[in-house]
From TrEMBL:
The Mn(2+) ion enhances activity. This is Amidohydrolase. The keyword Zinc does not apply. Mn(2+) binds at residues 136, 138, 172, 198, 412. The keyword Transmembrane helix does not apply. It comes from the Bacteria. SUPFAM superfamilies: Zn-dependent exopeptidases. Keywords: Hydrolase, Manganese, Metal-binding. Pfam families: Peptidase_M20 (PF01546). GO terms for molecular function: hydrolase activity; metal ion binding. Its cofactor is Mn(2+).
Length: 440
């Protein structure tokens, strides 16, 4: 077990205790008949969904190569009676469930690609494709999307409006969403709202989210100076200046990953240390380039929100302009360099976030929803953000961990695993949520 896994497992045990998940559901209201039907149907198809998930897990396909995965999805949706469009932005699939009655148009998105990985799988149903593994949980996302389509197709006569199911390729390359949009996705469908999820280390039986950004903002800060004889001094000055301009010093609790999910300091606490901050990923991305004309220094900046990101840039510029190096300074700017892991972060609509969290907790209990108050300084994002630029929506974290079973669902880690009960959670919660949005 890796150090990260041990840290998260300890934090998860505390989360279980904090949210009272051993008595999960006690605070739920009695669900209406349609939500009882949702739960009954989900239970009925659960074993088949587990088989589907394991099939995807054993047959993973990397970004841009999701041919078999997309064919399986399309066949499943067609069997449910949905209208199906394939080949959208590559191997993207769109399923359309039209109730035949006027109403709201809701979209659900699931990403379908796996990752190159030589790390041995930790489950009995391991990957058959050498060098490829579902180590990020997209097999679970895909299965949940198919399960929601199954449940809502079963409830079609009780619904109004249209539900779109977007199965997106190439998320790991940060290309799939843009490719689907460029290929006319929003000419094909016209959603009023869009929703999606990602497996996360939160406890199984929960979802977590917040309004605005759900990941830290990542951007490259580039400083350009005139070439001079004191370039080494300039580099040292700039590194020290930017390091000291961070919100937290090198020995702060902020840098201890053990605190990310702790009830006292982590992102689930209203007073979390993971809000209102700027932090540099200097050990990984401090890049110095010298030429005959210029000196360029680039660093990856991690910020809790765009305001803090912009303030950091303004502060650095002011400090240099009032220093002895002011005459050498040419520019201070954000520069999204090709090849660096700089991506958009999903930005959740505040009203939709609050309303959907409220509806899920009212049906499935207040312990089902974990409100977040901060964002960890990790290099994660999701190109779901590009859909949200056109359509308001919400991105959720789905709990997949179970410390009692030794399962820690931290994506991109060697021991990544999920408690497959999270499939049932995802299908139940979000089928009910979509029904509530259609009726809203």
């Amino acid at each position: 077990m890796t150090l990260v896994t041990k840290i998260i497992r300890t934090a998860l045990i505390l989360q279980f205790l904090l949210y009272g998940l051993f008595t999960f559901g006690q605070n739920a209201t009695t669900p209406s008949s349609i939500h009882q039907s949702v739960q009954s149907h989900t239970e009925k198809i659960f074993d088949s969904l587990v088989k589907i998930r394991r099939d995807f897990h054993m047959n993973p396909e990397v970004s841009g190569k999701e041919k078999r995965t997309s064919e399986e999805i399309a066949a499943y949706l067609l069997a449910l009676g949905l209208e199906v469009k394939t080949g959208v932005g590559g191997y993207g699939v769109v399923g359309i469930l039209n109730t035949g009655r006027a109403g709201k148009r809701i979209a659900w998105r699931a990403d379908i690609d796996a990752m190159p990985s030589d790390i041995p799988d930790v489950v009995d149903f391991s990957s058959k494709n050498e060098g490829v593994r579902h180590i990020c949980g997209h097999d679970v996302h895909t299965t949940i999307g198919m399960g929601i389509a199954n449940v809502l197709a079963n409830q079609k006569e009780k619904l109004e409006g249209t539900i779109y199911f977007i199965f997106q390729p190439a998320e790991e390359l940060n290309k799939g969403a843009k490719a689907m949009i460029a290929d006319g996705l929003f000419n094909l469908i016209k959603p009023d709202e869009i929703y999606g999820l990602h497996v996360s280390p939160y406890p199984v039986g929960t979802i977590a989210t917040k309004s605005a950004n759900v990941f830290a903002h990542l951007t490259v800060v580039e400083l350009e100076y005139k070439a001079s004889n004191n370039q080494d001094s300039l580099v040292d000055f700039t590194k020290e200046l930017m390091t000291n301009a961070q919100t937290y010093g090198p020995n702060a609790e902020f840098w201890d990953n053990n605190n990310l999910f702790s009830p006292e300091l982590g992102v689930t606490n209203p007073n979390t240390i993971y809000k209102d901050y700027t932090a540099l990923m200097d050990k990984l991305y401090f890049d110095v380039k010298k030429s005959n004309d210029t000196l360029k220094i680039r660093v990856l900046l991690n910020a809790s929100d765009k305001e803090k990101m912009n303030s950091f840039l303004a502060l650095i510029k002011n400090k240099i302009e009032t220093s002895k190096y002011s005459k050498e300074l040419l520019s201070v700017r954000f520069n999204l360099q090709k090849g660096l892991p700089v991506m958009e972060t999903p930005m959740n609509d505040e009203e939709l976030t609050n309303e959907t969290m409220k509806s899920i907790s009212s049906i499935y209990g207040k312990q089902s929803v974990i409100p977040l108050y901060g964002v960890p300084p990790l290099q994660f994002s999701d190109d779901f953000a590009y859909f949200q630029k056109t359509v308001p929506g919400v991105y959720y974290f789905l709990g997949g961990s179970n410390p009692e079973k030794g399962i820690v669902a931290m994506p991109h880690t060697p021991n990544f695993e999920v408690d497959e009960e999270c499939i049932k959670t995802g299908v139940n919660y979000f089928s009910s949520m979509i029904i509530e949005r259609l009726n809203h």
